[in-house]
Amino acid sequence: MDLDTPPDQAAFRNEVRRFIRDRLPADIRERLRLGHPPRKQDTVTWQRILNEKGWAAPHWPREYGGAELGQAERLILLDELFRAPAPLPQVFNVGMLGPVLLKFGTEAQKRFFMPRLANLDLWFCQGFSEPGSGSDLASLRTSARREGEGEDEHYVVDGQKIWTTTAHLADWVFALVRTDGTGSKQHGISFLLIDLRSPGITIRPITSIDGQHHLNEVFFDAVRVPVDNLVGEEGRGWDCAKYLLMNERTGIANVGLCRERLDYARELAGRLTQAGRPLLDSPRLRAEMAVLDAEIRALEVTNWRFLLSNDTAQKNPGFASVLKLKGTELQQEIAQLLQRIAGPAAMERRAHDGPGAEHWAGPLAMRYFYSRAASIYGGTSEVQKDILSKTILG
Predict the structure, then answer these.
(1) d(CA 112, CA 198)
(2) DSSP summary character for residue 39
(3) Looking at the annotation, which residues are catalytic?
(4) Domain range spanning residue 70?
(5) Which domain CATH number covers 211?
(6) CATH code for position 47
(7) Which residue of 15, 85, 236, 367 has the fewest CB atoms within a 10 Å radius of its CB?
């Protein structure tokens, strides 16, 4: 059941549902419903369809391809994409780099990159984490020294990034590099846009526990980067990073995702049988699903309160950590529930949606394994609890 909403928001939700129903390719929807991650071409195809409506980057100004949607409409759109299920717009392009360019970029950078980000003509990845510099991001060591003069002025980048999601699929990376080693750790960091086709770049795959290749190591060996690719001021890249991370953590509760996965668990439990009876006949299983449903509902209400009330956000900055913590826990609990519903079939592990992927349990196993990372990315659960202890408990 949806929350009671004003008529204009209800009308917008209906418009989004109709658009997804009419335009989302059926094969993409079915792959995601079974639990497969979207393929690169799935995301490109769907984002370009959304971009026709300005919904690929709904919060951007219209002059840069957005729709200038308010916070409520953006949340509705995200919720319906999760529920469909449909691929989300590529987050590094739309949710991270785009807002940074709007705030810190030059006019030339905006005019060149913004339309290509929205239409996914360029696929960006994020080059922040390094070996030994994950949670303590400001301790990064990848360096960039400035050389040349005039039109030949450029940076020479040396170093390594790790856990770089989709670097093997990407065209460019936005990276934090150290241009000045004096002063505090935050001082002297710069924000560069780097073409991954540049000489001196090596990308090495990292296979995660789900058997998939999402992550990579990226090595920079005397990579030349034009000075025009500097975003913001040299040495002030930490300002860009803080602004970007604020955008990264918006909507991280993933209420729609939790709702869609719980609906799928009900569907499976109604279809699968034990001793000739549907699993859903079990009072214990129905009670567990009812509890999860109530917790998703509570998370949804909290999410709306946080995103639509400036007073609440200012008085309780720890609300974002509450959303991250609870959203993460629910995603992991539902992934575990799906595994238990699958029973012995959950031992089936297929890493790809190729031949044999019609076996419904394989994707669930992969998704369960990957869900364990949800309590790490976007800020670990331990860090969120530290934030809560300081901002809410004092």
Answers:
(1) 19
(2) P
(3) 248
(4) 7-89
(5) 2.40.110.10
(6) 1.10.540.10
(7) 15
